[in-house]
Amino acid sequence: MSNSKVINLKRRPSGTPTLADFEFTTAEVPTVGNGELLLRTTYVSVDPYLRGRMNDVPSYIPPFELGEPIASGVVAEVLESKHDKFTKGDYVTGSLAWKETQVAKPDGLIKIDPKQAPLSAYLGVLGMTGLTAYFGLTEIGKPKAGETLVVSGAAGAVGSVVGQIGKILGLRVVGIAGTDEKVEMLKSDFGFDAGINYNTTDDMTKAIADACPDGVDIYFDNVGGPISDAVLFNINKFSRTINCGAISVYNNTELPKSISVQPFLVRNSSLMQGFIVFDYADKYPAGIKQLAEWLQQGKLSNTETIREGFDNIPQAFLDLFDGKNTGKMVVKI
Amino acid sequence: MSNSKVINLKRRPSGTPTLADFEFTTAEVPTVGNGELLLRTTYVSVDPYLRGRMNDVPSYIPPFELGEPIASGVVAEVLESKHDKFTKGDYVTGSLAWKETQVAKPDGLIKIDPKQAPLSAYLGVLGMTGLTAYFGLTEIGKPKAGETLVVSGAAGAVGSVVGQIGKILGLRVVGIAGTDEKVEMLKSDFGFDAGINYNTTDDMTKAIADACPDGVDIYFDNVGGPISDAVLFNINKFSRTINCGAISVYNNTELPKSISVQPFLVRNSSLMQGFIVFDYADKYPAGIKQLAEWLQQGKLSNTETIREGFDNIPQAFLDLFDGKNTGKMVVKI
């Protein structure tokens, strides 16, 4: 019997979360029962969608309970197995609690191969992040070579993969990000055709028009808010907007208002569709296969911001809202 | 050589159009050339989308020219034909100028049968109105029997047909309209399951929730604005919103703002899609066939508000924005 560090949700954040919303504590690790695994956390994924689960609002996944551990995508090492499909030394990934050590049933956990790719990639380009980019762009965006794709939050975890897949599929790809360094990196590291720094651009509508001389056919929207309003003025007939997230408004305490999208959609016979990656769960194996192939061919890079230390998980999460990550933010334990 | 009354666009309306935006004049009717028809206007369709063409803004159809006749859906009698597919006494429908008499090439005109249905029905349930309802609901809404459909502008031309088709396809149908009389008529004449008068309802979000105990699977949106905001709070996972029009904001002189739809779409994996009926032009024959069949079976009614007199066309158009029509507004000449 041993103890493990645990991070609980202490209170529901009002607006932007702070460290005071989290509780650092310890809990006893139970003994491993039949069919269970003892797991040591290796990498923890922090993601903007977790903010939604901190509210007491029904959504696609239930809210976190107050005083209970937060959970997210985790890579863990099997320390002890009482399940016949897993052995000591295996690595697994799936949704697990923010605990240094825990006992869990392997339902929903996938065994992963540290030789095929670095372990952290399974939280990034080969994990929910990569699959979100892949299914959103291909299933909703329905890209055709030669079309123009705009990506907001382009230097973020999902956005940077979306842009790379866009290039693989023959699109003109324009990324929107918040610093000159990120914009430069979109072009130098990820092969974007153009980038826009929304923090130094007065007229986003015009900047998007300039970067997209043939208009916008596909918009992969990670942010919502004023940036997405500006894209609306540039959408083409039959364009598709993929609503992946709305990080710009997640911390609003009042219901956010934007330009009415309806007249733009009517005028352009245009589509907007929200999704979460779980909608495509039955296609995960095909998605991972395609992404792993591109990764091994060097067409896709796994860009990460890695923080270290269990105690730094909450701060890494908070930093997402200040755009301090480039690519996928993970915490190495 | 004779003269014909004509209605031109005199100036581009600012906000809500007024009679002063129209010019009543006369023009010479040219002689009929080879391949042309001399046509006498019998019925004129007035439609909210014409408001958009009065602005000098590029859209799916070009704007009207100042000092030139307005055009809309028209039923006309052939007075003289120099085209081998048409003879004197035929009736045709298509987009024609607001002129009592005109000479036109028959490109885009369809010959119609006054024995199959009343002539005005070809501007309504068998015309663009019916096809708009049919293709929007079936192609974008993808209805499944047992689902719940909400229709805004439900007593209007398109909305009343949408609701009826919804009932034919086995949906629970809830309509939103602006008077108690209209709400009553939705239920008594069109078979809607429930109706909401938005002018006498304080809490639209709650009223929609009450009328849709299983949530909203399909929203056929003719209005945009606050009514559509209220629907958002009630949409189901994988719901579809059909953006057919946004009459509530067409006359706004400032860019209208609404609740940001993006977080709702993400949270519910929900779709919104705009369209115009021309997107489905290759399927018109199949659509008209289906609608005519339902009309003849008595499953679908052609509800009209008929005004009389060429000079009353502009007023009939203006009255659309005050909701003075029930079903399709047409002017009999």
UniProtKB/TrEMBL annotation, chains A, B:
It holds the Pfam family ADH_N_2. It comes from Neolewinella aquimaris. The keyword Secreted does not apply. The lineage of its organism: Bacteria, Pseudomonadati, Bacteroidota, Saprospiria, Saprospirales. This is Enoyl reductase (ER) domain-containing protein. The keyword Lyase does not apply. Keywords: Oxidoreductase. GO terms for molecular function: oxidoreductase activity, acting on the CH-CH group of donors, NAD or NADP as acceptor. Transmembrane segments: none annotated.
